[in-house]
Specification:
The protein is mainly beta. It is built from three helices and 17 strands. The strands form six sheets. A four-stranded antiparallel sheet has the order 5-6-7-10. The protein has a three-stranded antiparallel sheet with strand order 9-8-11. The protein has a three-stranded antiparallel sheet with strand order 12-13-16, with no helix packed on it.
Length: 275
Amino acid sequence: MKKTRLLGLTLALLGTVTMLAACGSKKESAESSPEQGAEAAATENTAEIEFGKKSEEEYPISDEVRKKLDALTTNYSKVNWEAEYMPTDGIVVSEGTYIDTQNMVSVEYHHLVVAFTNTTDQNIKLSLDGNVEGVDGTYIQDIFTDDIEIWAGNTVAITLELLEKAPSGNIKWNKVEIQPLDLEYTPYEISAKLDKGDSGNYSIKSEVVSDPEHMNSYSTKTGCGLILDKDGKILSGNSLYESSWDSWSNLSIPAETFNGENADQVIFVNLYLPK
């Protein structure tokens, strides 16, 4: 699912300056300076920047992979992703954003959610090196890891806190490398619900359903939980890092209210059995 977000750029308006002569009432039209002329030309050539457009054009999703995405029975389709593209065969990168206004200084902090979906028929590990770009095309933050495991057909996501810098949806990928995975897999399902604890903040409470012999035996390295509105737009989220299942099954979300807009919650994680 995809929703286009347009990032507006400010337009400079140039008008005719009317001057009054000092010794009379005659009006004269001021001539535009060379600097004003250059500004006007730049304004005319300015176009709205579409979130993630450059990445989508550089790494298009094939028809075959699009069919696989549409056929997924996971939580992937619950999210209204703002950009989707395929930087290497079989691996789809999906991006979404949300703004945190719950911080102590009441500043709008931008967050970027980056999800990786494995549409191949193999369990794999990703080695990644990328640079997140801002709306002005400058570097904001790195994505660098060699340890994201994804079962076939699964999605793993991370959240990046970019503070006051808004992302463009374009990531310069220096490396997206698929490596073999030797972890032990067993089928499981994750259920999640939104709850409020004693602190008054939201949390996503999760349970894993699996074979009885494997219950409470899972570990994970990377993932995140997201809160969505009724249209699948991301309202908030939080990341998790290497840990056993029990230690993060109650994923805290640093917010006291979403003004009643929260309608669903999802978790994107890859659970495996420790060796």
